[in-house]
């Protein structure tokens, strides 16, 4: 009962793909920004020792004292790690390279895959959306994220071999759903770095559409130099270049994802 009540309010969504550099972080930080712009309360949890989401939001990792690592290890309460990103309604639980240690230090700990879920359970009702930016692996950190989440968003790069590894990811999600977290579903597959001028990009989208006819998002995120520049200024694309096609695409994707999740809750 408690679980259902929670689902009705907070959406906890993991951005996962064990492939590196496919747009997980870019999609998580920018969708978070779009949700916050729409008046929703957002917490982004950086679950990656690379800390790219933290840096992308303009927060210097050097200055961090309490991070996702401390929370997962049970050494700090979530509130001690959470901070404002300086944007209205948009908070961050930052990460640093310490988080890599959690993978090893938790190996022998009981219920080690539930550490993040249990910590977020204490605070998540304060948010409408909790977004979990996963590292490029299917290891313990991603497992923690998928146990804490009610949905997964899978960013896929529009390139040759994009689908490689997708069966493994789908298999992992299915196993987690069947054995650990029955509320987990795939919210959508987001095609990133789309270049409509190439046949290859169009073919990849068609192939993914055949594989995931219901799940593929209609909005394609274009390949955009502006999008790759924005994080180095600690800015969202909506701040760095609001008129760009990439900014418009993320705004439209936010609307689509909100629609998808509302429909799912209503069903
Ligand atoms: N649509 C895009 N067009 C151009 N560059 C992009 C786009 N999306 C992301 N990038 C750039 O590609 C790189 C990888 O993106 P990002 O960090 O979001 O991927 P990731 O899946 O989170 O990577 P990792 O697996 O290392 O965590 C970054 O330099 C980012 O700025
Ligand atoms: Mg990343």
What does this protein structure show overall?
- The chain has 267 residues and is α/β, with parallel strands linked by helices.
- The protein is built from 13 helices and 7 strands.
- The chain has helices at residues 2-7, 24-37, 52-56, 68-72, 78-81, 99-105, 115-121, 140-148, 166-179, 199-211, 225-229, 237-240, 245-266, and strands spanning 11-15, 42-46, 83-87, 90-93, 129-133, 151-157, 185-192.
- The protein has a 7-stranded mixed β-sheet with strand order 3-4-2-5-1-6-7, sandwiched between helices.
- Helix 2 (24-37) crosses helix 13.
- The two termini are 18 Å apart.
- The chain binds adenosine-5'-triphosphate and magnesium ion.
- Magnesium ion is lined by residues 24-25, 48, 52, 133.
Summed up:
The chain has 267 residues and is of the alpha/beta class. The protein has 13 helices and 7 strands. A 7-stranded mixed beta sheet has the order 3-4-2-5-1-6-7, sandwiched between helices.
Summarize the topology.
Layout: H1 2-7, E1 11-15, H2 24-37, E2 42-46, H3 52-56, H4 68-72, H5 78-81, E3 83-87, E4 90-93, H6 99-105, H7 115-121, E5 129-133, H8 140-148, E6 151-157, H9 166-179, E7 185-192, H10 199-211, H11 225-229, H12 237-240, H13 245-266
Parallel strand pairs: 1-5, 1-6, 2-4, 2-5, 6-7
Antiparallel strand pairs: 3-4
Helix pairs in contact: 2-13, 7-8
The structure holds adenosine-5'-triphosphate (ATP) and magnesium ion (MG).
């Amino acid at each position: 009962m408690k679980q259902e009540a929670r689902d009705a309010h907070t959406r906890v969504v993991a951005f996962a793909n064990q492939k590196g550099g496919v747009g997980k972080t870019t999609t998580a930080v920018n969708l978070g920004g779009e949700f916050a712009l729409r008046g929703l309360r957002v917490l982004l949890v950086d679950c990656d020792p690379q800390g790219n989401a933290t840096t992308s939001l303009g927060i210097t990792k050097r200055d961090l004292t309490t991070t996702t690592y401390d929370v997962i290890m049970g050494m700090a309460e979530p509130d001690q790690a959470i901070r404002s990103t300086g944007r209205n309604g948009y908070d961050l639980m930052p990460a640093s390279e310490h988080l890599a240690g959690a993978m090893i230090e938790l190996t022998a700990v009981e219920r080690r895959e539930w550490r993040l879920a249990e910590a977020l359970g204490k605070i998540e009702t304060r948010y409408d959306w909790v977004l979990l930016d996963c590292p490029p692996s299917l290891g313990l950190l991603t497992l923690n994220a998928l146990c804490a989440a009610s949905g997964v968003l899978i960013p896929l790069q529009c390139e040759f071999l994009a689908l490689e590894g997708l069966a493994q990811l789908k298999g992992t999600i299915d196993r987690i759903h069947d054995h650990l977290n029955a509320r987990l579903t795939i919210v959508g597959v987001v095609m990133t770095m789309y270049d409509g001028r190439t046949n290859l990009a169009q073919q990849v989208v068609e192939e993914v559409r055949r594989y995931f006819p219901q799940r593929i998002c209609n909005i394609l995120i274009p390949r955009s130099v502006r999008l790759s520049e924005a994080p180095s200024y600690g800015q969202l694309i909506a701040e760095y270049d609001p008129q760009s096609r990439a900014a418009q695409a993320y705004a439209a994707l936010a609307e689509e994802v909100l629609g998808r999740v509302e429909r799912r809750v209503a069903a």
